[in-house]
Amino acid sequence: MRSHDDDVKKDRLFGDYDTVLKESARLTTFGAVLFGFLLNISIRGVNQLIYAEKIILVLALFSIPISVLFVMPVIYHHLQFPYTDVDKFKRRAHRFIIFGLIPTGFTLYLGMVLAFSPLIAELPYFIAVLPFAFVYVLYRLRKY
Fold first, then answer.
1. What number is the average pLDDT over the span 97-101?
2. What is the C-alpha to C-alpha distance for residues 61 and 57, in angstroms, rounded to an integer?
């Protein structure tokens, strides 16, 4: 016979699992789009890139699949199944997503450097930092 506490725990687990899956799906989709953008550059425009830009492109093409691997829900599922401890599941999922965001941010930065380099020859590395700085400032200024 199932108790009310078991039902509440199971509902909480499904809600938390659903949230992790949605976050992972969004990050995986973003990573796939970013990878497609970089792959398109590597196929169509590699002859127009200077040596430094080719190195940036290779680094970006390697870092985005790494990030996607860490935000994919399959990893959480296999590490935590069967789901008995909701808090442990949330902590582990959070760590994987944070770890996956590091190469995602790195790839996004490199992609912006590649996008800005034909337009602004001298400052693409500085200009690509500005969106990250802007988000950081907004984060620091937010109200609780």
1. 81
2. 6
